[in-house]
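Dear support,

Our group has been running a series of protein-ligand predictions, and this particular one with dihydroflavine-adenine dinucleotide is the one our PI (initials K.S.) wants archived with full inputs and outputs. We had some confusion internally about which version of the output was final, so please treat the block below as the authoritative record. The input we submitted was:
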Amino acid sequence: MEYLTHSINFLFFLLTSLLISSGANSSSNNSQFFECLAIKFQTLNSTISDVIYTPNNSSYSSLLQSLNERAASISKLRPVAIITPWVESEIQAAVQCSKKYGFQLRVRSGGHDFEGLSYISEIPFFIVDMRNMRSISIDDEEKTALIQVGATLGELYYTIAAKDRTLAFTIGVCPTVGVGGHLSGGGYDMMSRRHGIVVDHIIDAKLINADGEILDRKSMGEDLFWAIRGGGGTSFGIVVSFKVNLIVVPQTVTVFNVSRTLEQNATQLVLKWKQIAENIDENILLRLFLRSIRSPVDGERTIQASFTSLYLGGVEDLLPIMQENFSELGLVKQDCTEMSWIESTLYFAGFQNQSLYVLLDRSQLGGGEIYFKGKSDFVQLSIPENGLNGIWEFLNKEDIKQTELQLSPYGGRLNDVSESETPFPHRSGIIFMIHYLVICFEDGNSALDKHVGWIQRLYRYMAPYVSKHPRHAYFNYRDLDIGKNNIQGNTSYAQASAWGSKYFKNNFKRLVQVKTQVDPSNFFRNEQSVPPLPTLDSENIYLSLQEKMFIVTIIIVIIFNINLVTLKL
Ligand code: FDA
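Confirmed final output from the archive:
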């Protein structure tokens, strides 16, 4: 009976997939790809209807739903299939069929990529969506966690706290962010000044490579293991799970969120914040959010600076530190709340007074009909008062309503790790990181252009105040404005360096070398994936320069000859 059900499933899937591929895309690769999947899944005894969703399935649209919903709807192509594996062998099958028929694969864990690269593509593609592979096991003796990538950060917070309230993990702020993208691309959080970046805590990983092999840290080798801790998993394979060291937190932490407007001296407070936030006790992370609001006094637009903080300890210890370093803020005990670390995750996610179960709610993932764009910067020198006044003007623009600048301070453990320890290179000499954000709720392309134009102009305005040559950016705050690969064909090292050196500084060269070794055919690719060199020989980085010099010499000779001919004439 079971065999019969499988066979019917198989035939039904094959038939509908062939219809889709003949209608949506005439390439015979599509149908061969589906045929390959059907055969492999039948061999695996997998129930196709539980794993492969084509546009014919009623659940396809809800599965495709994404955070940046408008970005997805603007994109011309929809995935020909969404594959939601339950076991590794189903991922292996998807990789093998995709490779065999040259079909573009996008992998999605939490779907929070700023530019939607896990679910948007300009060429025909399918998605491997890891949502079903989300088990988490905590070893409280060893103080480690084994996490499958389809888990959200909220599920991870919840599971750690359910096991042991003295343990925690430095992760991020939004509970619906996925482990797959977040842990492979960096990970800044409210404890980063004390405990560093998320990637600093990864001790093992399981990955499926372009040949469909399952590798762990030992079998993948230290170079590849280095690359997927900050270089983005997506260039190197499909990460299935990460093993991480957990951290020990005090029973009581203290949080506060104090806001001041321009009329309440916000500009001077921001100037002072820049002096102290990087040097203050590393148990405090004092994040700063800048927004435009309607003034409660006269209804005019004004700037609100919100100082949002986590202190790893009790309020009695926090107050003297704040008094000594930032008395101007006027922090008092009533502004502060003591709680456990797990409660602080709710606080920062905006879920005050809610049950911990809200951390398990994945439905917040669908952002509705919004479009958002983010950009990032690293500040190495101070921004003077007139620089801030210019930012206020941008934020107060009447026709752009939903905007925010998040300023995340450096210092403490963030500075203790060398730039090359992991691909995430933004370690020392930084005062704070900026995350620019604009959200557009309006319909129509002109509204989108207006909002994107706004953030791009602000970014240009900020150039004198931020890192230079090149201007650095945070990989997990994906931004295609800083450069991208060719959609089809190869992308040279020089072209990819335009964006690669901004995200990874000198580590980009090593990422390219690792890519060349593990995926020379560039199977795992997207608009900002690390490209391989043309051959396995990393010396080619220099050869390509020689080639360039050769071409330049030829051009000079030609011009010289043309001049000679012209002179003779
Ligand atoms: P998604 O599934 O979209 O993947 C992102 C990228 O990783 C894609 O290129 C995808 O292909 C690849 N990928 C995903 N899973 C993979 C896997 N298993 N194997 C290989 N490649 C894989 N950052 C931060 O440092 N601190 C913070 O506090 C926050 N907060 C935050 C809030 C909100 C609302 C958003 C939208 C984003 C953040 N971020 C953040 C940034 C976040 O870390 C970044 O967007 C992550 O890439 C999201 O990971 P997801 O798995 O959710 O995204």
